[in-house]
Amino acid sequence: MKSLLDARLPADIALSASGRDDLTYGQFSALAEDAVAALRSRGLARNDKLAIVLPNGPDMAAAFVATACAVTAAPLNPAYREDEFHFYMDDLKAKALLVEEESTSPAIAAARRLGIPVLTLAPKREAGAFTISGDAVAPPSVQGYAEGPDVALVLHTSGTTSRPKIVPLTHANLLASASNIRNTLHLTERDRCLNIMPLFHIHGLMAAILATLTAGGSVFATSGFNALKFFGQLEEARPTWVTAVPTMHQAILSRAGRNADVIKANPLRFIRSSSASLPVPVFHALEEAFGCPVIEAYAMTENAHQMTSNQLPPARRKPGFVGCAAGPEVAVMSADGRLLGAGEEGEVVTRGPNVTPGYENNPAANEAGFAFGWFHTGDQGFMDEDGYLKITGRLKEIINRGGEKIAPMEVDEVLMEHEAVAQVVTFAMPHDKLGEEVAAAIVLREGSTVTEQALQDFANTKLAAFKVPKKIVILEEIPKGATGKLQRIGLAQKLGLA
Question: Mind giving me the DSSP string for 311-327?
Fold first, then answer.
């Protein structure tokens, strides 16, 4: 990780933030040296896990990179409650917790219950610059920088259907993935990313931060996504690109019309979307509103983020497809381990230097997840004749309606064609005879009205009757996960339909 910082011109800008001085690559490299010395002096060694609970922004971005030069960074969602922090830090066997100076986070109480030492981060004038203080964990360590096979980052999977799994990613994994993203997006030192993604999640850490640093560009680090602040941030940062999840893009779109002058004055080279399926109408609306290409990518934590991506012009981008292999090998596999041809539907599998070496302390998950020599994503899809991947659903999310199998994304795509619909998530609702029934949660466009029956009638013209949602709930907002992704599993319970 340190090599990323040392490979750039020392005076070039690496990190920026509102109200802070710019941080150069030279300053970032010195910061990493100081962080390594501070952690080593407190007894933290390579592959020791440091739980990090910091608000989004330049300090979190810099802390991830700098601490990973010494130990294993384990960022946690600052919004967790004490019991959640207790579970995750205990599960990780964290050696220390890093919080901001004067923090009141419940993570501190959880750490004390576990007997985990607490370290504090004090910001300095430059964006992301800080000092670390706190008690020793063990006798001082004399180890140097962490490198290739050492684990740089651990994250938990979402755990929507089972106990969350720990995903370790080595320095080699992260550097491979960062290079893949840089190459796909043709990033250079002239590029500037506006980061609105949370930095306890692989998307922001890899696509926004590490891919940019690999290219020698700069990141304008915000405090997180706020649709009301986005266009002001666009004016201040003057970025060349932004990456986000589809729900964020939809919220930005809803305000794009009244900010047309800001968009025109601050043109983007491209917009990237990942971490969930981008509805085709949103793809077209984004390109029209911003006048630049929209690049949809397919990614997940176990692959250190990017697996496939649509391509920048003059190469092809296909709305509704998540692009072609963009780094690792990507294939579609049958249940018995056969690799399938164009148009044949099966499970998406990957292999390559960006893929995790395996879940931590979970042999059963590793046996299933790495069968036949490939990593199994759990996603269902097919490749077209050009090698572009279409995701048709999540295997665990497929609705089984009395033996009829329905891919929720297919229903999503149809309902999104209705002029009144802004967002939709189709999900399984329990049924006493069929086992599961089709349901959908919908957010309407501003100023639009439509009845449940009208939406069902619309769907009935485009879908087989058994795929039409028997229950449609119209909401002001659909419940989302911590990273802004819409979640199908568990939605029936959250909406009182189970």
Answer: --TTS---TTS--EE-S
Query: Does 131 or 135 have the greater pLDDT score?
Result: 131
Q: Which residue has the tokens 């993935």?
A: 177
Percent of the chain with pLDDT over 70: 99
Sheet holding 241-244, edge to edge: 23-24, 13-16, 218-221, 192-195, 241-244, 270-273, 294-300, 305-309, 324-325
Residue 266 has a CB neighbour count (10 Å cut-off) of 19
The domains of the chain are located at 1-394, 398-494
CB 304 within 8 A of CB 356: yes
Q: Which two tokens stand for residue 312?
A: 């920048």
Structure tokens at 395: 């295997």
Rg (C-alpha) for the chain, rounded Å, is: 23
User: Which helix (DSSP H) or strand (DSSP E) does residue 271 occupy?
Assistant: strand 270-273
3-state secondary structure of 118: strand
Give tens-digit pLDDT for 412-446. 999 999 999 999 999 999 998 888 999 999 999 99
Buried b (16+ CB within 10 A) or exposed e, 350-383: bbbebbbebbbeeeebbeebbeeebbbbbbbbbb
Q: What's the average model confidence in pLDDT over 323-332?
A: 98
Identify whether the C-beta of residue 203 lies closer than 8 Å to the C-beta of residue 299. yes
Lowest mean pLDDT among 365-369, 405-409, 457-461: 405-409
Beta strand 241-244 pairing with 192-195? parallel
Secondary structure (3-state) at 85: helix
User: What is the predicted pLDDT for the residue at 464?
Assistant: 83
Phi-psi region for residue 393, left (φ > 0), alpha (ψ -120 to 50) or beta? left
Give bridge partners of residue 401 from the DSSP assignment: 404, 435
Top CATH class, 1-394: alpha beta
Residue type (1 letter), 157: T
At residue 480 the predicted structure's pLDDT band, cuts being 50, 70 and 90, is: confident
334: β partners: none
Q: Which fold has domain 398-494?
A: GMP Synthetase; Chain A, domain 3 (3.30.300)
Q: 425-451 as b/e, with b when 16 or more CB fall inside 10 Å?
A: bbbbbeeeebebbbbbbbbbeeeeebe
Say if CB 405 and CB 397 are below 8 A apart. Answer: no
**Could you give the strand order of the β-sheet that contains 118-123, starting from the edge strand earlier in sequence?**
130-134, 118-123, 96-100, 49-53, 72-75, 151-156, 166-170
With residue 427 as reference, give the H or E element that holds it.
strand 421-431
**How confident is the model over 154-183, as pLDDT tens digits?**
999 864 445 789 999 999 999 999 999 999
What are the CA-CA distances from residue 130 to residues 31, 75, 100, 133 (Å)? 7, 17, 10, 10
Contact between residue 421 and residue 445 where contact means Cβ atoms under 8 Å apart: yes
